[in-house]
């Protein structure tokens, strides 16, 4: 029997059929036909599982939806507008929403591309704190005589709508006021305070763009794709992955209303300026305002019309303010043993100390903060050096040494961990002072009824009489 079993295993033809043969005959018997291919298993109707989106990208997509709704509202206002002022105001709202949507789309692409974080300010790994940024008291002087000598006489009844757009990275802000400009206007003034919602780093670049409405004859060619539409199509069709982006697909409808029955007024960039940290000031300063868009010659624009649309003097006056986190938030607080010189001899005193702005303020008790004047105030300077004190010179085990060209100071702590925390906090405060300088002492005023923060509404009223620009008091919701 063992020999028979071994022969069956070695020779499939002996003693029966193979497993494959049994399967083939079974399939033939069931179907009644030979050479029938077995029926394929039905594919699952379940949709493929979507990859969970980054929370930051989801927040950006929500902002895109919000801007799309704002733009749709401006489009409906444009359809219902009965005056030139209402049409101008609604068109400006559509224009600004387009710019914000494109900026948000670019930010989504940068996040998905894995943009690297910015480098630190020094080799110690410390990075200067971010700051809240604001710009106010904007004034743009005009020069009509030289403009008319070159471009011809300007009709006294011609009105332009002018506003400013501000860009920092992917943040886009605008002046809620839309100023009416005619031949008698000598200065364009915006009394708005523009506060950026997201904090910026010290290496920021603020792009200021001045936009002016085109005459009605230029607006008649509204069937041509506008610059935002071209940029949107380029962003959407630039890569295979971007065309499948739900944010891009969701926002595509926001540009479809450009062919509405009532065409929106067109705007073109008349001038631009770049501002940096070095232009910070608590008072108004004058900066160079270049004609045309960035990279243009100043005599022609990308929209096909001649520039300058406005008789720009070539200057812009404004106040650029920054409020670093170190100006409002305490860096660190706790009890410190400070060394004082009393009668020429060192003496130690235990005080409650708080590091904020560029100062170390000391009280006897934590309850005295905000109620009494500090017992001692130590000014931090850019040239200060903070390091652990040498054990041979100091009996206390956990001490630090603060030195600048004019003074020396010793501090002692209860533990090594506490000492390291204070060394890092003091070094961070000194770095912030080096980077932000006098801005560490400045606080941006809180907005009130005369100040605007990221407001989607605009204000525009045609000028009636007198000289200078007139701001209207009616908003989009009131028209």
UniProtKB/TrEMBL annotation:
Keywords: Coiled coil. It holds the Pfam family PH. PROSITE patterns: PH_DOMAIN, REM_1. SUPFAM superfamilies: HR1 repeat, PH domain-like. Residues 43-117 form the REM-1 domain. One of its GO terms (cellular component) is actomyosin contractile ring. GO terms for biological process: actomyosin contractile ring assembly; mitotic cytokinesis; septin ring organization; signal transduction. It comes from the Eukaryota. Residues 1-53 are annotated as: Disordered. Residues 329-431 form the PH domain. This is Rhotekin-2. It comes from Geodia barretti. The lineage of its organism: Eukaryota, Metazoa, Porifera, Demospongiae, Heteroscleromorpha.
């Amino acid at each position: 029997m063992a020999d028979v079993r071994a022969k069956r295993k070695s020779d499939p033809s002996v003693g029966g059929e193979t497993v494959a043969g049994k399967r083939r005959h079974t399939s033939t018997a069931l179907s009644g036909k030979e050479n029938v291919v077995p029926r394929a298993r039905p594919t699952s109707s379940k949709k493929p599982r979507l990859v969970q989106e980054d929370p930051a990208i989801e927040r950006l997509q929500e902002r895109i939806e919000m801007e799309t709704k704002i733009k749709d509202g401006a489009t409906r206002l444009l359809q219902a507008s009965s005056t030139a002022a209402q049409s101008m105001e609604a068109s400006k709202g559509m224009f600004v929403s387009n710019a914000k949507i494109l900026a948000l789309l670019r930010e989504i692409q940068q996040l998905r591309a894995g943009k690297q974080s910015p480098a630190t300010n020094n080799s110690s790994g410390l990075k200067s704190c971010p700051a809240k940024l604001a710009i106010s008291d904007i004034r743009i002087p005009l020069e009509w005589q030289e403009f008319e000598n070159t471009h011809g006489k300007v009709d006294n009844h011609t009105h332009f709508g002018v506003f400013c757009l501000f860009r920092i990275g992917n943040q886009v802000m605008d002046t809620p006021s839309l100023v009416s400009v005619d031949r008698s206007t000598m200065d364009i003034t915006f009394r708005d305070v523009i506060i950026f919602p997201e904090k910026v780093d010290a290496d920021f670049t603020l792009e200021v763009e001045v936009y002016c409405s085109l005459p009605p004859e230029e607006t008649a060619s509204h069937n041509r794709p506008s610059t935002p539409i071209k940029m949107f199509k380029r962003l959407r069709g630039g890569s295979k992955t971007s065309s499948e982006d739900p944010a891009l697909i969701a926002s595509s409808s926001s540009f479809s209303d450009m062919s509405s029955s009532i065409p929106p007024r067109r705007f073109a960039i008349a001038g631009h300026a770049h501002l940096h940290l070095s232009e910070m000031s608590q008072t108004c300063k004058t900066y160079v305002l270049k004609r045309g868009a960035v990279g243009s010659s100043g005599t022609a624009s990308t929209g096909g019309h001649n520039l300058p649309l406005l008789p720009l003097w070539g200057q812009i006056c404004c106040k650029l303010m920054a409020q670093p986190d170190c100006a409002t938030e305490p860096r660190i607080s706790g009890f410190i043993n400070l060394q004082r010189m009393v009668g020429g001899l060192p003496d130690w005193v235990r005080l409650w100390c708080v590091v904020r702005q560029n100062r170390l303020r000391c009280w006897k008790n934590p309850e005295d903060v905000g109620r009494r004047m500090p017992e001692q105030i130590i000014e931090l300077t850019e040239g200060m050096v903070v390091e652990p004190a040498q054990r041979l010179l100091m009996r206390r085990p956990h001490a630090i040494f603060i030195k600048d060209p004019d003074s020396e100071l010793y501090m002692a702590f209860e533990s090594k961990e506490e000492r390291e925390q204070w060394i890092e906090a003091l070094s961070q405060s000194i770095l912030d002072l080096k980077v932000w300088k006098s801005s560490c002492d400045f606080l941006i005023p809180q907005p009130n009824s005369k100040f605007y923060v990221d407001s989607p509404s605009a204000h525009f009223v045609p000028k009636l009489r007198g000289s200078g620009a007139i701001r209207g008091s009616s908003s989009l919701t009131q028209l």
